[in-house]
Amino acid sequence: xxxxxxxxxxxxxxxxxxxxxxxxxxxxxxxxxxxxxxxxxxxxxxxxxxxxxxxxxxxxxxxxxxxxxxxxxxxxxxxxxxxxxxxxxxxxxxxxxxxxxxxxxxxxxxxxxxxxxx
Length: 118
Description:
The protein contains 6 helices and 5 strands; from the N terminus they run βαβααβααβαβ. The longest helix has 18 residues, at 15-32. The chain is of the alpha/beta class.
């Protein structure tokens, strides 16, 4: 049984950023499809900018995102800092503010999660 926290830090400004989010979503889907694995998909930093795009049914990655959306969370502080807090609220995704307004990476490490960043 694996435990992973997949953290999307890449924004959506370049071609390589699109590659990073695609790889993050694929990795999350692989964990989701493996019985006994535990994972969370965290959109943090500039990665919070993906939420409005991924929620859009016209997005190339919407279907892949939908496959793992139930396990996705968003940094509360960063969604505001990157101007997407309204879109995040509309999405209904859970926001995390455990440590100074951000998700607690230390708690994940303490809970034996492998941290994978994209």
